[in-house]
Amino acid sequence: xxxxxxxxxxxxxLSPYIQLMxxxxxxxxxxxxxxxxxxxTIAGFYxxxxxxxxxxxxxxxxxxxxxxxxxxxxxxLLILSTGCVSAIFxxxxxxxxxxxxxTFDRLLLRPLSTLGQVLAMRFDMTGLMHLLLGIxxxxxxxxxxxxxxxxxxxxxxxxxxxxxxxxxxxxRIIVASICFFTVRNESLQHLIVFSTREFLMYPVSIYIRxxxxxxxxxxxxxxxxxxxxHVLLNRDANTLIxxxxxxxxxxxxxxxxxxSLYFWRVGQxxxxxxxx
Length: 276
Known about the structure:
Pfam families: ABC2_membrane_6 (PF06182). The chain has helices spanning 2-29, 32-60, 68-88, 95-100, 103-108, 114-121, 127-145, 151-177, 179-182, 186-194, 196-200, 209-218, 226-232, 249-273. The chain is mostly helical. Helix 3 packs antiparallel against helix 7 (127-145). The protein starts with a helix and ends with a helix.
């Protein structure tokens, strides 16, 4: 009986966020032509990136010692994480609008998590296109490399993608939190959020050592795909800064996400104290 009461209580707590998500999806689907056009744009964007990588592989054979199949696998991990982030954390990209238009003031009046409300109100179905493309890229890489998907490897893949989602989602929350202090953050957003993919399209090992250290310890996006790929592809981890790093995608993701929640709380307290 107590378990049923607990489940009902959890559903009641989640119900407002689910309703906000439904409203977001319905508003998107009102303009189906625009929605479909945007999906095709996403597909075209990824195909263009794949074409660039393909041209480089066609000319050099490998990129930093990574074969075409391994590059496809590396790219698939990036797209899988990006797909989830695009769906769940889309609200962080236009959070400055919430501040400028006064929408965030209304969110503060509700007995709900402000972050949860922003994420639910901007839930983006187009993230599913990223996921489908990521799955297709993973299947393609699996065929090229003849990967055997054991239960342990599948579990590690899921944890690695989850870690990548937490890292990229956490970065978006941190950048969005800047709006509590500055209102606008577009320049920082383009510099940090949108340039991230460019770094992760290629093995981090092709960059000079200081950049590798930066992408590992200061801005740890290398854990999104580069490090876990070493485990999943049985690559030599001894070439890394530290072999143990290959196993830390999920723990690092948790740390980044927890840090992002702290940034959000600090920013929200500052915003509330200004009386905005």
